[in-house]
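Checked the freezer inventory, then went back to the computational side. Two predictions to log before the end of the day. The first one is the construct we discussed on Monday; recording sequence and tokens without edits.
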Amino acid sequence: MSTYIIWWILAFALVALELTTGTFYLLVYGLAAAAAGIAAWLGMGLVAQLVIAAIIGIAGTLALRKWRRAGGTDEDLQDLDIGQLVMVENWKDGRGQVKYRGALWDAEARDASVDVSKPLYIRAVRGTLLVVGN
């Protein structure tokens, strides 16, 4: 079997596996393997193929790390909830349940000054707990 076919099979397997993880790292490594496959197809030696795969893999990994640090994480999704209005269903001693997006959520007051007779807004999200305030 030709070397370029092995690289492309590896690339396909990595990209297919990426579809189950959603991290983008395996996609980068799949692209690196595909590039090494192209290098093999063009007749470059094994050392050149490995160098090409390594350069693309390292560059892609560094780019993904920079993107994640710049705010491409799951925490961004929670930021969409901040500031949204919730409706109190039951409340006692600074804790209770609120209705938000058609479901009941556990909630706690941001501080002791929260007045549940006034509209409450989401101020923070801790897992499945909403921290609310006026």
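The second is the one RB wanted added to the comparison set:
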Amino acid sequence: MRLLSRVVLALSLTCAAGTALAATPATTGLGKAWPNAQDFSTNPNFHVYVFAMGGVQYIQVNDVNGNVLGSVGAAGGQFITLPIGLFAQQVTTPSQPAIISTTAVPTAAPATVYNDGQTTVTVTALNNGTLSLNAAVAQTTCDPIDCNIKGVTGP
């Protein structure tokens, strides 16, 4: 009986450690279609991968086919657009407008694809067939129903 208790305890600790490790942002794979990283997307039409290095979170948005759409770096409420993805020039942040201005108009409301309680990323479909990505500081406390904290800690 004592041996069984130890086995159950060991399995429980192993499962808990595996869950904690799975929620840790990856440190490599940024820019890949299918990186070896957890998908933190809050929207089934997109994949969102989070990478962390040097106190910066790198958030990459892919479509359902694995095409990289765009990416931002976030640290302490500051953002930088990264030059990767099909729509990298249409990523906006509070301090950086999209590089390419367009007269295209949204065809739907922005879809939240990522929210960790500190950073929110939305994607908006435009009538010219492109997508606009927007990264911003999360304005409200993250609701567990539509939030993807899943153990990710901020920078």
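For RB: Residues 3-22, 149-155 have pLDDT under 50 and may be disordered. Strands lie at 46-53, 56-63, 68-75, 78-82, 91-92, 111-115, 119-125, 131-137. Let me know if you want it refolded.
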